User: What shape does this take?
Amino acid sequence: ADLLLELSTVVLTNIVLELNTFFQDSLMNKKLKRRNTAISLLPIIGWMKTYSFKDWLLNDILSGVSTGLVAVLQGLAFSLLASIPTWYGLYAAFFPVIMYFFLGTSRHISVGSFPVLSLMVGAVVTRLVPDEGLPANITAFEGLTKEEQRVLVSASLTFLVGLFQLGMGLLQVGFIVMYLSDTLISGFTTAAAVHILISQLKFVLGLTVPGFSGPLSIIYTLESVFTQITSTNIHDLVTSIVVMVMVLGVKEINDRFKSKLKVPIPIEIIMTVIACGVSYAFNFSENHGVDVVGKIPNTLQVFQMAAVDAFPIAIVGFAVAFAVAKVYSVKHDYVIDGNQELIAFGASNIFGGAFKSLAASTALSRSAVQESTGGKTQVAGLLSAIIVLVVILGIGFLLEPLPKSVLGAVVIVNLKGMLMQVVTVPYLWKKDRPDCIVWVGTCLAAIFLGLDIGLAVGLGLELLTVVFRAQFPRCSVLANISGTDIYRDRKDYVNIYEPEGVKIFRIPSPIFFANIDFFRDKLKDVGFNPLRILRKRNKAVKKMKKLLKKGELTLTSSEDESNMEDLDKPTDYSDLPIQVNWNAELPANIQVPPVNIHSLVLDFSVVSFLDISALKGLKAIKEFIRINVDVYIVGCDPYIIEKLRNCKFFDDEIKTSIFFLTIHDAMLFINESHPPKTVSEKVMKTFGDCTTETFF
Assistant: This one.
């Protein structure tokens, strides 16, 4: 009894200890899970723990001030593209940055206005609130001035962009941007650069040009510009040319000596300050009719409900930002989360839209400033937002005399990188023509039909190229590189030999309903059509039967019993107890195309899946088996083999023994089954074929 009591005590103690350990581990796991969730939703918690104030703070301050000054100028300039008052571009460099500071995973991108996004917003703004004529019939427009209506459309659009991005982030569909290839984005942004360039002509030339939207809007804009070209304001034109020449020249110096310059020369800021001073001194606005920025208010108003057309803007904005963030994450060796970036930009645009901000993304030039000036984290972004806030609330009045032509010139200069993408077209044409077609098609459609339709056309072309590549892949017949166990496309190498009597056929893509017929046709590249030969042989056998019955054919014995062919399908050959040498001369002028191979190897190493249509189509290998051509499959994924087995692919003719791990393994087996002929055997065969009179 004492022993049992002691044993029970020990058991109960162990159980209690195990339960205690279990609950402690469970509690720790829950805490760890909560901690990881918090870090994933608020990445600032993760990187602030490792923030080195001693090493990084000074760099972030310098970077933040430099980036903030650039953000002020670009915010003013890019708001012109959206056809809204210039100061709303400044809001895009403040409100979204604050939210991204807490939620973003990239440490180096500069959040704010982006010219392509601003142009897309401007297209919607001018469509709903045109320069000439009545605005769209929207109840919220009642009692508002045209300027207020446009701001309302822009803010509502920004809010909806944020909702789309936030929704996609919460649904974990960040992968959607993978369907926007680099080629498509390049063609699209080049077209956007052309639109931006044309839209800035009215500011550079000092003309009053109404806003156009929809297909061929660029043609109508050019027509309006050239109709008024004689009314060009010389002061605007000269100012713009001087600014563009100076900015381009100094930017070239920055690029050439960037290794020696600790900080790029802020020529845009310098020219803006000079232009403001000259404009104020000579009163350009009143004396020479120059359109200036005007009063920048220091009040922040709240969002009101409005419009649509936000989804493509949300996709393009995120795609561009994610691409730029990915570049810097690779360079500085840290990880960014696509879905968290969607959440961050979604929340940033919702927050910004509530304060009538312009839609935010990132600009490569501004991000380059933040990174190149030593920025280590988004502390630099936060400081740049503070610089913008100082301008909005404190010293914005100093920018009031700034001519809009200067902003137009700054915008045009910043288009250089996007416009120069056109030089990639010849390279794409030489290296990848489907990609070239996507680039050119997207660019032309976006230029002439509008950015929204152009993006849709680009996606359509891209999907067509995917279908085209999958449906018509580059299949190849492989051969052996002499002296190795390596097999490559016989067209790509000189020192290569094709194994005698063997064809090796590589299938370079998944096999499914859309391309199974293509693969069956490509198998004819082995040199013959197996079904045609099978039918020819069947017809020949039937004719031989008739000759035998009439006594017009004399049988001779066969020397090679290994060539016996099972021709019981689709015709019964039981009345023909002979072996036919189909490569010899046949009697009665019977003609059957010769088969010069005995083995066919199919390389499935890159076949990732098969569908039911493909399984049925692959049954065509029976046509080879029935004409005495052995078929082997190499490099096949075990999942595919299991699927073939489950779908009853194997039978008396197609056996599981046809599978090998590599081409070399299959070739070793084939060489054992069909030893290569010696030179003397080849000579005897050649002369024997010339003199033989038998066909059995």
About this structure: Strands lie at 111-112, 361-362, 476-481, 487-489, 496-497, 502-506, 599-603, 630-634, 659-660. The chain has 28 helices and nine strands. The first helix runs from residue 2 to 41. The two ends are 95 Å apart (CA to CA).
